[in-house]
Automatic annotation (TrEMBL):
Pathway: Amino-acid biosynthesis; L-proline biosynthesis; L-glutamate 5-semialdehyde from L-glutamate: step 1/2. GO terms for molecular function: glutamate 5-kinase activity. Substrate binds at S47, D134, N146. This is Glutamate 5-kinase. The gene is proB. Coiled coil: none annotated. It is found in: Cytoplasm. Residues 3-231 form the Aspartate/glutamate/uridylate kinase domain.
Length: 253
């Protein structure tokens, strides 16, 4: 039986910290999935709808209004999916879009529908690409950069591993954070201890910072799932983390 892995990809990873969605990064992710697909079953939670829209349109706003972000997400999401679809197709991979919010997971009927849909997709080798449905929910664009959605979905779909791709080599020790040589915390068993290492800093496109990733890991841990926080900016980050060839943080189940 294949191991089920949920990968959360933030806007910073998808844009490689620029103002453009990086087709190269999407291809990098697709190439790795194609390489590993006989052994693993992948589910993606991808942000990046707002970042994609910003490439194409300028809406009247001061950059902070939630309704403008929702509109940007509505504009960017189909374009983002188009890029995934084109890049993955070339690698022989089929993609699909699943939009929901974590409050949908609290509704029994919606839960069953989400589970049924995703199970049929996976059984047919179609990769589910999940994002928050930002037209009807604003939870994640307000607070949590899809980290919570990814963790609750990971728990709900009983995945074997939650991999959160971000723009650092995992979680750094607080004392090394200001220096030139940040030091990755490699393995953690206690979430409480980890909370002390986090600063409130967030990156250019990010919304939740490292705190929301720790909260996500805590949700996963309660469900018996290990979380890895990996540098998605690096080429080959999925394969290299599986082979333990890069520094990243493992939060034990
Ligand atoms: N202890 C820490 N180790 C690493 N990064 C940290 C830490 N504390 C805060 N951060 C910040 O969290 C950021 C990652 O979160 P975020 O900006 O929301 O990215 P993403 O778009 O990947 O969700 C890092 O770029 C860093 O600035
Ligand atoms: N649903 C939104 C998520 C926005 C967001 O800030 O997420 P992230 O890039 O993970 O910090 C989008 O796709 O743009």
């Amino acid at each position: 039986m294949k191991k089920r892995v949920l990968i959360k990809i933030g806007s910073n990873t998808l844009t490689k910290e620029t103002n453009q969605i990086s087709r190269g990064k999407i291809e990098d992710i697709g190439r790795q999935i194609a390489l590993l697909k006989e052994e693993y079953e992948f589910i993606l939670v991808s942000s990046g709808a707002i970042a994609t829209a910003k490439q194409f349109v300028k809406l009247e706003h001061n950059g902070q209004e939630i309704d403008v972000k929702q509109a940007l997400a509505a504009i960017g999401q189909p374009r983002l999916m188009h890029i995934f679809q084109e890049s993955f197709r070339e690698l022989g991979l089929f993609t699909s879009q699943c939009l929901f919010s974590y409050s949908d997971l609290e509704n029994e009927k919606a839960r069953v529908n989400i589970e049924n849909t995703i199970n049929v997709l996976l059984a047919n080798d179609v990769i589910p690409i999940i994002n928050e449905n930002d037209t009807v929910a604003t939870d994640e664009i307000k607070f949590g950069d899809n980290d919570k959605l990814a963790a609750l979905t990971a728990a709900f779909l009983k995945v074997d591993l939650l991999l959160i791709a971000t723009n650092t080599d995992g979680i750094y020790t607080k004392e090394s954070l200001d220096g030139k040589l940040p030091e990755t915390i490699k393995e953690v068993a206690s979430i409480t201890e980890l909370g002390k290492e986090v600063s409130s800093v967030k990156s250019s496109h990010g919304t939740g910072g490292m705190q929301s990733k720790i909260e996500a890991a805590s949700i996963a841990k309660k469900a018996g799932i290990e979380t890895w926080i990996v540098n998605g900016l690096k080429d080959n980050f999925i394969v290299d983390s599986f082979r333990d060839q890069i520094h990243f943080t493992k939060i034990k189940a």
